[in-house]
Amino acid sequence: MNKIKAIFLSVVVLVCGYFIVTVGALNSLFDLYGNISDGFFQKKAEDNINVIYTGASIKYIESIFGAPVREEHSEDGEVNEYVYSFKKFYLQIVYNKNNRVIFYSVTSKDKSFHPKIPYLGGELGDSFESFGNNIDYLKSGYSSKFYQYEEGHYLGFPGNYRNFYLSYNPSGVEYMELKPLTDIYNDNDSYPDDKELIEFRKNNAPNTFGIGDVMGSHDGPELFYGIGMEYYDARDIPDKD
Description:
The structure is a single chain. By secondary structure, the chain is of the alpha+beta class. The protein has two domains: 1-51; 54-234, no CATH class. It is built from four helices and nine strands, in the order H-H-E-E-E-E-E-E-E-E-H-E-H. The protein has helices spanning 2-48, 58-65, 194-203, 231-234, and strands spanning 70-73, 79-85, 89-96, 101-108, 135-142, 147-154, 163-168, 185-187, 208-211. A nine-stranded antiparallel beta sheet has the order 1-2-3-4-9-7-6-5-8, with no helix packed on it. A hairpin with an 8-residue loop joins strand 6 and strand 7.
């Protein structure tokens, strides 16, 4: 009788062991599949930055990136915003009442992420200075929690009459250690000291680029929601990974 019990217990142990090993193997397989799937999705999102353009339909954007993690609509319905959050970057899309994209921006969250910037050449992580000195829009300032800097470049015909924007956005990564301008606030009417601006642009790098609409304007609807991810919203939004 004891011999039968011993054989029975051995069988139970073997079956349990087999079950545990099998479940563990399946979990590892599912984890591997999940990691591969997430990695593929992230790489696809990064690659698809290159197919965004102002003038596109918002339906086209949705077909590529899916539903946004956040959306905003002006009271009159004239200007609307989609925000996406991926592992390495935020994507901001602004569109008008005709569902036409009039502005988009990319804000990097990872030092290893260096997307190329359309028309301007170079990539995020290069110094502001490397994009040239033809600045026709500037805005910078401090809040109690962060510092933000923005500049605009207009290329005329070579840029298809769009405005191109570079920014240090506090929601993004620091490619270089931030050395901000000393004035509390600067804009086109309250310009920083020339020498200080030269040093700032030499020693700091944009983590955000934005592309405006054809024949758009700094004072028009393309900057209605600002350039890049809003700092306080970024603290609550999860990555789509």
